[in-house]
Write a structure and sequence with these properties.
This protein has helices at 13-24, 62-70, 84-93; strands spanning 3-9, 27-34, 39-46, 49-56, 73-81, 104-105, 111-115, 125-129. The chain is an alpha+beta fold. It has a single domain (2-129), classed as 2,3-Dihydroxybiphenyl 1,2-Dioxygenase, domain 1, CATH 3.10.180. An eight-stranded mixed sheet has the order 2-3-4-1-5-8-7-6. Bound molecules: cobalt (II) ion.
């Protein structure tokens, strides 16, 4: 198992970037936003993994609802896989509930899919194809 990144929901993206770079020495790699998904994100390198800071552009989005309900905090962990189709088939065969029926292109520009937190001990978990 390799952790690709940890996703953290934040209310203030600039403040969160400053915290992670100043306090922990993470390196800001790039920022991206997707108007359709209502999401702004920043990707920071933290050793062999990344931190993905997620900030909603609107309240009626998955991360917007997450923030309203739970406040800022850990949103998901992402596991790197070589073959996402196989990883999804294996997860399905194991009885896990997938949120995404098919892989989609994530903010990293690679194929991703989410597993429902109720199938992973309460942790929203993402496959990232690398
Ligand atoms: Co992610």
């Amino acid at each position: 198992m390799r952790i690709h990144h940890v996703g953290v929901a934040v209310a203030d993206l600039d403040a969160a970037i400053q915290l992670y770079t100043d306090l922990f020495g993470a390196e800001l790699m790039h920022r991206a936003s997707n108007e359709a998904d209502g999401l702004a994100a920043a990707f920071l390198r933290a050793g062999g993994a990344e931190v993905e800071l997620l900030s909603p552009l609107r309240e009626d989005t998955p991360v917007g609802k997450f923030l309203a309900k739970r406040g800022p905090g850990l949103h998901h962990i992402a596991v790197a896989v070589h073959d996402i189709d196989k990883a999804m088939a294996d997860a399905r065969a194991a009885g896990l509930e997938l949120i995404d029926a098919e892989p989609r292109i994530g903010l990293h520009g690679t194929r991703i899919a989410f597993i429902h937190p109720k199938s992973v001990g309460g942790v929203l978990t993402e496959f990232v194809e690398t």
